Amino acid sequence: MIRLHVYDSPAHKVVSKCYSRIEPNPDISGLGVVVAFLLSAYLVLALILGAYCFGALPKGLVRRADRQLFFARRPEPDERWQRIFEEVVLMFSDQQLLAGISVLIAAYVQVVNADLGAHHWNSVVYLAWLSSTVRLMSLPVLRERLKRNKLALTVRICAIMLGVGYD
User: Fold this and answer.
1) CB atoms closer than 10 angstroms to residue 92
2) pTM, 2 dp
3) Other CB atoms closer than 10 Å to residue 5's CB: what's the count?
4) In whole angstroms, what is the distance from residue 162 CA to residue 167 CA?
5) 14: buried, middle or exposed (CB in 10 Å: 19+, 13-18, 0-12)?
6) CA of 52: how far to CAs of 17, 28, 75, 93, 97, in Å?
7) Nearest to 28 by CA among 106, 98, 100
8) Would you tell me which of 19, 30, 73, 100 could form a disulfide with 55, CB atoms 3.0–4.6 Å apart?
C-alpha cells in the first residue's frame, strides 16, 4: 500500500508558497506608530465635536443648519476657551502633519531599498489618509488664526502640499 502525505503533494507546495509569513515592520505598522496616529486623530475628532456641542468653535463656523440638525451652540463670549481649543487643535494637527510626512518618507526609503511589502504599503496609505483627514478637519477651526499669521499659513500650506504630493 502506498501512503501519500498531503505535504508531499504539488498542490500543497504551491499553496504554502502563497501563504508566506509577513515580516514585521515597526517603522510602518509598529504599535507605537499606529497608536500615535489613532489616538491623536480620535482626540481631534472628540475636541471638534465637543467644541461643536459646547460652543467653543470660532465665530462664523456654526450655521443655522448646524444648530438645528446637530444642536450646535453659538460661540460663547469666553475667548479663553476658544484660544485653548485652537491651540490644542493646532498642536494635534501639526503633529499629524509631521507624522504623516515622516511615515511617507520612511515608506519611500524602504521602497527604494526593496524592504517594503504590499501589506505595509497599504498601512502607509491608510496612515497618510488618516493624517490628511485630521489636517482637513482642523483647517476650518484654524481659519481665522491662519488669516492673521501669513507666515504660518504659507509654511502650513507648503507642508500640506508636501504631504498631499506623497499621498
Assistant:
1) 21
2) 0.70
3) 7
4) 9
5) exposed
6) 52, 33, 9, 18, 23
7) 106
8) 73
Q: Model confidence over 50-85: pLDDT tens digits?
A: 877 777 777 777 777 776 776 666 656 577 878 888
Residue position matching grid coordinates 456654526: 62
Distance between CA atoms of 156 and 11, rounded to whole angstroms? 55
DSSP annotation of 149:
-
Residue range 142-153, pLDDT digits in tens:
888 888 888 887
- Which spans in the chain are helix H? 10-18, 26-29, 31-54, 64-70, 79-112, 118-138, 143-148, 150-166
Contact in structure between 52 and 70 (CB atoms under 8 Å) = yes
Q: How far is CA 60 from CA 46, 66, 77, 150, in A?
A: 20, 11, 14, 20
Sign of the CA dihedral 105, 106, 110, 113?
A: positive
